[in-house]
Specification:
Blueprint (H helix, E strand, L loop, with lengths): L1 H29 L4 H12 L2 H12 L3 H26 L9 H4 L2 H14 L3 E2 L1 H20 L10 H5 L4 H33 L3 H26 L3 H26 L2 E2 L6 H20 L4 H19 L1
Antiparallel strand pairs: 1-2
Length: 308
């Protein structure tokens, strides 16, 4: 029964996040907010909403391992699985933006901050607030290059007539689905962990992280099929920054997070290594199927280690 509850709750979480993203876009377009701001904030942060909800729920229930593992697993999957699929699906990737010079540091900086913060075995509420400031710095950095960044906005939303009643109802439904889905996802995942005799860290790293990474996968694959590599790769970098800052920051603010750097060394280092791989790929412009295969192989190796 817990497996069914977990699947339904993850579906509610993802659909709820989708409602929030779409209706937030409607409001932004209604008030003539620029496409860049929508792309940099609503879409980048919106695709990380499932991770945030799941980690906050886990932190609220004092399940630090699950909250942190969700972030580690999501970061690993975003780069190795999502980016690997993007490279395999895309025919010709030639980003207009210099991703190495302008963005690659942001794939490493947040995880280095996390390692420094977690070195003493915990991330406090004050450190959580600091993580929010890092996200604010990232958005400020993006705003300086607004003209170079493309944002994929649904043209149907632009054409539709805005209705406050419909938008508010869907926003409310979205928040209810996200909050309820996150709570049930965490409780059912905990039960699954106990029944299988595995740690909550493994469940967070595998099951919850995979489920909450689906929005990034969908957004990036659609962008890749439209030959919009800048958005696909940018979405992954932005989502990873959001995971280490807003997601962990929110969870730590709800309740201080315990971080077992020694016991979970392999998975934390895996997140760091795949972040380094992203820097290497952008530095050498290895946007091809060979890089995609290497990334997908990395996904298999990391999660095989977690399982066995």
């Amino acid at each position: 029964m817990d497996y069914i509850i977990f699947i339904i709750s993850m579906g509610a979480l993802i659909y709820g996040a989708h409602f929030i993203i779409v209706e937030s876009e409607r409001i932004a377009l209604h008030y003539n907010i620029s496409h860049f701001v929508i792309g940099a904030t609503l879409i980048a942060l919106g695709t990380s909403l499932p991770e945030m909800a799941a980690s906050i729920a886990a932190s609220y229930h004092h399940k630090s391992d699950m909250a942190v593992a969700n972030v580690m697993g999501s970061v690993i999957l975003n780069i190795s699985l999502v980016l690997g699929v993007v490279f395999l699906l895309s025919k010709n990737i030639k980003p207009k933006r210099d991703l190495f010079a302008k963005d690659s540091a942001w794939s490493l900086f947040p995880i280095l901050i996390f390692i420094l913060m977690g070195y003493d075995g915990k991330i406090s509420a004050y450190e959580g607030i600091l993580l929010f400031f890092i996200m604010a710095s990232y958005l400020l950095f993006l705003s300086e290059d607004a003209k170079e960044i493309t944002a994929e906005i649904d043209e149907e939303l632009v054409k539709e007539k805005f209705k406050w009643t419909k938008t508010l109802l869907l926003l409310l439904a979205g928040f209810v689905l996200v909050v309820t889905g996150a709570d049930f996802a965490v409780s059912s995942a905990s039960n699954i962990a106990r029944n299988l005799g595995v740690s909550e860290w493994i469940i967070g790293l595998l099951l919850i992280a995979f489920g909450t990474s689906l929005p990034e996968l969908v957004v990036s694959v659609i962008a890749a099929l439209k030959n919009n590599a800048d958005m696909a790769i940018g979405n992954i970098i932005g989502s990873n920054v959001a995971n280490f800052t807003v997601v962990l920051g929110s969870a730590a603010f709800v309740h201080p997070l315990k971080v077992d750097m020694t016991g979970n060394f392999f998975d934390i280092m895996a997140a760091f290594i795949v972040s380094l791989m992203l820097v290497f790929i952008t530095a050498n412009k290895l946007y091809n199927k060979a890089a995609g295969i290497v990334l997908l192989t990395t996904t298999t190796l990391v999660f095989s280690h977690a399982l066995f």
